[in-house]
Design the sequence.
């Protein structure tokens, strides 16, 4: 298939593009390569995908040296004309939209970035899908949408109307916007609520990266909520497997869906939402122990209260993913952390 993937210089987008290319798909990649975090990591990912450029001009088409069936455009999502050009020029069959302004804490100080990228940008994706006969739009949502929910594990059938960060609100908005376009224009859309993704080539603003860097530099790590946090850490390969299965299986309308007792995860329209998580929350202190073991070095811990926008625990109910697509993530945390540390030491030569 010809698949357009946004965010291919990003963590999940890079891994997904590589997986699709390795199985023979044609991939059109889009990213604006912003400086939200160290762009050396973003350029490193693009180099792995076969691009040798030291810089990319906005709007220009680049072809991978390693994958002849892979092209890349540097484009801002909010540039509607540029997005329209790529869809018209490339004519993809399916779209996986992973590009977004990420980060819960950054949204507290830079809210406008989330409206422009995650709301305006997503509208441009939806409009392009509407006008170019896209067979399926899969897009990244987030476990953050569960907000103040306390019933565990988090189910896609739960109400998610109480987000506690603008980032989470923008992701919930994406789900609502997607449903609207599925209903009005019969576009199959699937939202993917990712749970704390980690692994090689991971984001430098995430805990695993920050902890590893600090421990190797003999600096204390900041441990929020005094360590009393739980996260459903999900290894990148598990995430990608789930995403690929979703891309390959566009949703159909549920004829049994009822407006009297509406299921938030489906619809009469071709619309679905899935959790992709490990289904096994890990205590933060156990996560740190896994990092210490992989590094062979003990961490100095700076215990702090919980930060605004953070939730104390996440836990994915993946039963819908298992039922519909026959898949359940399950990579052990020890294995995933070891793979990340190996990559980190190699990339930074430490």
Sequence:
């Amino acid at each position: 298939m010809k698949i357009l993937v946004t965010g291919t210089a990003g963590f999940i987008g890079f891994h997904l593009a590589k997986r699709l290319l390795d199985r023979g798909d044609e991939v059109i990649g889009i990213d604006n390569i912003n400086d939200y975090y160290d762009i050396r990591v973003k350029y490193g990912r693009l180099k792995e995908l076969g691009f040798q450029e030291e810089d990319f001009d906005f709007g220009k088409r680049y072809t991978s040296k390693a994958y002849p069936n892979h092209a890349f455009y540097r484009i801002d999502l909010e540039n509607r004309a540029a997005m329209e050009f790529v869809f018209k020029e490339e004519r993809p069959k399916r779209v996986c939209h992973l590009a977004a302004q990420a980060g819960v804490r950054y949204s507290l100080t830079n809210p406008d970035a989330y409206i422009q990228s995650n709301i305006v940008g997503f509208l441009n994706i939806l409009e392009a899908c509407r006008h170019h006969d896209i067979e399926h739009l899969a897009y990244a949502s987030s476990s953050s949408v569960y907000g103040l929910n306390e019933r565990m594990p988090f189910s896609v059938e739960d109400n998610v109307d109480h987000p506690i960060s603008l980032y989470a609100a923008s992701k919930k908005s994406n789900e609502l916007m997607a449903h609207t376009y599925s209903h009005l224009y019969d576009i199959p859309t699937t939202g993917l609520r990712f749970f704390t993704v980690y692994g090689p080539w991971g984001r430098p603003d995430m805990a695993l990266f920050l902890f590893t860097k600090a421990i190797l530099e003999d600096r204390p790590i900041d441990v929020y909520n005094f360590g009393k946090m739980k996260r459903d850490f999900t290894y990148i390969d598990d995430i990608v497997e789930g995403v690929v299965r979703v891309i390959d299986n566009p949703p159909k309308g549920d004829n049994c869906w009822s407006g009297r007792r509406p299921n938030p995860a489906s619809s009469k329209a071709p619309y679905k939402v899935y959790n992709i998580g490990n289904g096994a929350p890990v205590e933060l202190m156990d996560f740190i122990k896994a990092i210490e073991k992989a590094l062979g070095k003990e961490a100095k811990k700076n215990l702090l209260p919980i930060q605004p926008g953070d939730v104390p625990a996440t836990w994915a109910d993946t039963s819908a993913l298992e039922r519909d697509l026959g898949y359940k993530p399950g990579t052990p945390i020890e294995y995933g952390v070891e793979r990340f540390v190996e990559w980190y030491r190699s990339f930074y030569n430490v």
About this structure: The mean pLDDT is 96. Residues 200 and 340 are 4 Å apart (CA to CA). The first strand starts at residue 2 and ends at 6. Residues 111-131 form the longest helix (21 residues).
